[in-house]
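thought: user wants a sequence for this fold. calling inverse folding tool.
action: design(structure=
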């Protein structure tokens, strides 16, 4: 089963950096960017988060919620947010990463000849009705936010 544009976005209920549960269905009526990333405070993930941060005013002006999802816990998310002044919500999807799995964003990865299960760097835009509007499986971390804004005609 491969997710397609127009499919209902898989709903979820995950804790944010403060431990408060965030449910996707409760955000209906506005666009939501969901981006999955491997780990807080690593080079690629920092570039991606900072690109969203640097474009934050555009997302906010267009009533677009941004949710970053990784396996990291609340303490790690809070440090990452404070270190880089990240203005949006980070959610924890702990192993076995059921939410990332429902978005086909968790699976077998290879690094330096080693295989392991991990979070894929994928991004999704959910429309106000709760359906997938855009899907990005090939993500350039440093420019993902710019690309989403461009594809939505908001650049």
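)
observation: tool returned 155 residues.
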């Amino acid at each position: 089963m491969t997710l397609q544009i127009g499919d209902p976005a898989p709903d979820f209920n995950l804790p944010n950096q403060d431990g408060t549960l965030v449910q996707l269905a409760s955000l209906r009526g506005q666009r939501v960017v969901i981006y999955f990333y491997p780990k807080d405070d690593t080079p690629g993930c920092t570039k991606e988060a900072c690109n969203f941060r640097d474009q934050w005013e555009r997302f906010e002006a267009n009533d677009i919620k941004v949710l970053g999802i990784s396996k990291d816990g609340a303490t790690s998310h809070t440090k990452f947010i404070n270190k880089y002044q990240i203005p949006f919500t980070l959610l924890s999807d702990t192993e076995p990463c059921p939410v990332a799995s429902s978005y086909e964003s968790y699976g077998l990865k290879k690094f330096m000849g080693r295989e392991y299960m991990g979070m894929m760097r994928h991004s999704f835009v959910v429309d106000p009705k709760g359906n997938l509007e855009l899907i990005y499986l090939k993500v350039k971390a440093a420019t993902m936010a710019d690309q989403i804004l461009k594809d939505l005609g908001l650049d």
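thought: summarizing for user.
answer: Here is the designed sequence. The domain at 6-150 is CATH 3.40.30.10 (Glutaredoxin).
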